[in-house]
Amino acid sequence: MTIGKLIDGKGFAAGLRVQLTDHIIDFVAKTGRKPGLAVVLVGEDPASAVYVRSKGKMTVEVGMESFEFRRPASISQDELLELIEELNGDPRVDGILVQLPLPKHLDEQAVIAAIDPAKDVDGFHVINSGRLAVGLPALVPCTPLGCLMLLKDELGDLSGLEAVVVGRSNIVGKPMAQLLLGESCTVTIAHSRTRDLASVVHRADIVVAAVGRPEMIKGEWIKPGAVVIDVGINRVAAEEEGKTKIVGDVATAEAISHVRAITPVPGGVGPMTIAVLLRNTLVAACVRAGLKAPE
Ligand code: NDP
């Protein structure tokens, strides 16, 4: 039995941050200021607070300025839009990220639409998704861009490969499919209404799983030699009573003997997301400063 490789997303992300640090030194030398990332956190969701803390820490570690705006869950839509307007006009801020999900009374789409597309480092604004769709330079959502980097590192040229993306969300599935199409893959997007998901997945040279269902994609579904990117983050009960653990959307222990390579969860896609967010912030800063953006 052959065993596939585990893709080291954590190591890749660390390497990406080192490259960014060099670019940022150059940016500071040329502009006399640091690129700045503003993160807006509304409410007290503990998971969101953890993400925001680690984003802030890594932003500073690579040499950028981190601005954090914490607002109570009771903030009104108008107050939040006012804050975004301020950040749009703030010359120290190159990237704006509003941590999602927002409390129910706030209109997420309206909040995303209010962000200046040139500072939309999450790549969720329709201007950026439209630019991605027509093949223009865009700020691309961090998680799928991170997945693409890992795929290209593993496979090189993706042209002509059969890719199946499971999940069609605006933040992962759809932009992932657009990126793979941009690499000339033959792309299928599967979702909850897809019939016979197992045989759809079995066609793929590349599988990207972005579903949010623990270990739903079984090892035997995977074509031998495929590369699998597992985006899912699912908290489940651990073997030890009272403990929990994180698993992906793919049954990795089964899949490992079918794949050429697979991202582990944790330690695969997750660390890439923040590294790409920092990259997007530097790209936005370079574009605003009229400098050449990093690849
Ligand atoms: P969403 O819930 O927005 O989308 C899930 C998608 O999966 C939907 O398109 C849904 O189909 C599809 N789906 C649900 N059930 C099935 C099924 N039984 N068969 C096939 N498709 C199904 O999730 P996200 O895209 O936001 O996130 C997906 C996963 O990725 C989550 O676990 C999330 O935590 C994780 N994630 C990880 C990140 C990271 O940094 N590693 C970043 C972002 C997300 P339909 O549209 O028909 O409902």
TrEMBL record:
Function: Catalyzes the oxidation of 5,10-methylenetetrahydrofolate to 5,10-methenyltetrahydrofolate and then the hydrolysis of 5,10-methenyltetrahydrofolate to 10-formyltetrahydrofolate.
Domain Tetrahydrofolate dehydrogenase/cyclohydrolase catalytic: 7-122
EC identifiers of the protein: 1.5.1.5, 3.5.4.9
Keyword Amino-acid biosynthesis attributed: yes
Alphabetic keyword roster: Amino-acid biosynthesis, Histidine biosynthesis, Hydrolase, Methionine biosynthesis, Multifunctional enzyme, NADP, One-carbon metabolism, Oxidoreductase, Purine biosynthesis
GO molecular function, one term: methylenetetrahydrofolate dehydrogenase (NADP+) activity
Subunit field text: Homodimer.
Family membership noted in the UniProt record: Belongs to the tetrahydrofolate dehydrogenase/cyclohydrolase family.
Keyword Isomerase: no
The species this protein was found in: Sphingobium fluviale
Catalytically driven reaction(s): (6R)-5,10-methenyltetrahydrofolate + H2O = (6R)-10-formyltetrahydrofolate + H(+); (6R)-5,10-methylene-5,6,7,8-tetrahydrofolate + NADP(+) = (6R)-5,10-methenyltetrahydrofolate + NADPH
Protein name (record): Bifunctional protein FolD
Any GO BP: methionine biosynthetic process
Matches recorded under SUPFAM superfamilies: Aminoacid dehydrogenase-like, N-terminal domain, NAD(P)-binding Rossmann-fold domains
Pathway(s) served: One-carbon metabolism; tetrahydrofolate interconversion
Top-level division of the source organism's lineage: Bacteria
NCBIfam families listed in its UniProt record: PRK10792.1, PRK14186.1, PRK14188.1
Entries under InterPro entries matching the protein: Aminoacid_DH-like_N_sf, NAD(P)-bd_dom_sf, THF_DH/CycHdrlase, THF_DH/CycHdrlase_cat_dom, THF_DH/CycHdrlase_CS, THF_DH/CycHdrlase_NAD-bd_dom
One Gene Ontology CC term in the entry: cytosol
Pfam families on file: THF_DHG_CYH (PF00763), THF_DHG_CYH_C (PF02882)
Gene designation: folD
Residues the record lists as binding NADP(+): 167-169, 233
Domain Tetrahydrofolate dehydrogenase/cyclohydrolase NAD(P)-binding: start-end pairs: 141-286
Lineage: Bacteria, Pseudomonadati, Pseudomonadota, Alphaproteobacteria, Sphingomonadales
